Amino acid sequence: MIEESDNSQQKTDSRLSREIGAKAKRKLKAQRQGTPGIWFGLGMMGLIGWSVAIPTLLGASLGLWLDQHYSGPRSWTLALLLAGLVIGCWNAWHWVDREQREMHEEENDDD
Known about the structure:
Elements: H1 2-33, H2 38-69, H3 76-110
Helix pairs in contact: 2-3
């Protein structure tokens, strides 16, 4: 009974020491690389914003042109504005998801 308790304690201690070692490695790597500045964060926000804004504006522009040349009972501007917004949001989500996966892969490679 005592041996089982000691074995369980050793497994817990071993797991804890591995987790502490991994966290220490990540912390040392972060200190070596330095923290990204405010300009990096603003640049990322701008990049995501433009990835949504450009398809939205292109959709609205095409819709305005279609409404001027081929007017009908429905508004092309509204429909293509919405389509551009959906495409832009999907584009931003896809980009952020890819960056997040790369960060996790890099983190796992360090362990």
